[in-house]
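Researcher: Structure for this, please.
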Amino acid sequence: MLHGHGDDGYRFNREIVADFSTNVWYGGEPNGLKEHLFERWNLVNKYPEVIGESLSEKIAAHHNLYPENILVNNGSTESIYLIAQLFQKSKSAIVVPSFSEYEDACKLYQHNISFLDWSELNADLKINADLFFLCNPNNPTGAVFNDFEKLLVNNPQVTFILDEAFIDFTRSITSAIELIKVHKNLIILHSLTKNFAIPGLRLGYVAADKVIIDKLKAYKFPWSVNALALEAGHFIYDRFSTVQIPLKQLLSDKIDFEAGLASAPIKILKSETHFFTAESRNGTAANLKSFLIETFGILIRDASNFRGLNENHFRIATLTPEKNQLLISAFEVWNNH
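Model: Predicted structure, token format:
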């Protein structure tokens, strides 16, 4: 999907006062990262490492894995397309609603695709597929699935692609990356762009058994991750404990935000992250998005193009209390317009 994602404010000919459409951490990149990259601008005068080898080593050490278990990529999107290419023409199941690139990548590489609604997901599920795509915490809903290891154990014949792009935005589950050590049928995707607010740099990685990583490398083109993105990764992992988002405060603000929206003409779906999906009871998401951007300069994510959702669904992320109040007030106007 080349269009239809969030953070599309560039398409509107007006100032964006508050962008609720992206689920990237609103606080910006870690302190000192911008200056660090400027100081190392000379890195762009040479080719970067072919596959980000030194960053793979650093990430592996962080997770107590081997470097052979990690492949650094140009964001999770490259990871998804590499996996779809490696397993081309496979029988693939995708839990929906979810990130559209799983389906798009599988279509590109001629997978036989089936879909499972999130409400039907359970640990005793018998999966009739070669690959199983699950985003946990889920995008766009923020829901979490707590019994993943049991599901994994119950389906040893399936290769699981577990997307943990938003694992750092919840306190309800922890990463399953330790399971890589004992389950050769598990591929985990991590993103460094969401919680560290560097989506424009494009940086993420795959964690999996060495056999799978080696196969993925065979399809990866050289230098897909640029020098400054790799340097940002080094900066982050050299200071990992000090550059984390204030998650407790963010989730507390999210609870207050939801409470402030209680009288709005919307139904909010349960979320365990800072972002959540809602359903408009007063017009379509597209009309709501247009009204908010034209009237207030507020941007939301029209979620109607997620498989499993309808034309009234939209996604919003928690921002500062002051900006959250802007949207709460805007909904009062929308309700009466």
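Researcher: Any notable elements?
Model: The radius of gyration is 20 Å. Residues 1-6 have pLDDT under 50 and may be disordered.
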